Amino acid sequence: MKASSFLGAIVIFVLFLSLAVSFTAMTAPKPIGSENFSPRITMEYSAETSEFPDVEKVNLNLSLASGKVEVKPVEEEGLLYRLILEYSPSMEAPKVDRVVSGGEITLNVDQLSGSVEVQIASACTYSLQVQILNGTFSASLDKNAKVENLKVNLNSGVGSLSLLTGASLENASLEAASG
After folding, report:
1. Which of 30, 39, 141, 176 could be stapled to 145 by a disulfide with Cβ–Cβ 3.0 to 4.6 Å?
2. pLDDT tens digits, 128-147
3. What pTM, to 2 d.p., does this model score?
């Protein structure tokens, strides 16, 4: 056997060996544990009536590419709103813009993925406009919620709205393209 044939056989053997190792590494089951998932980052935004005594209305414009939005009423004296945004560190941080004008606060939130919890209280009236490309929306409104407008657009996903005793909801529009 010539030296060149021998070297060629070694090269072919190494190529097949590397293919076998790569295939095994890609298809072998890996253990699932918390160390395989990156921790979530949580950001919180809130406002109190002591900071903004003249505010009577909060407008929330929320855009989420993927994830869930949950609207909850809370019994907390002096709370105007609280937003709890949760996202993966590998994703871009949410963009939150707050504008105070006269007796209104307008919040514009743009988030790629993750979850958003919107806590509302009885201190003022709310107008919520939510756009979700893929995900879920849920709202449970009770006596602590005075919602003037609720508009939800879901491109793909599931939405739910429940009105409990004493809830105040003037206008609601829930649209889902599929889901």
Report:
1. 141
2. 999 999 999 999 998 888 99
3. 0.76
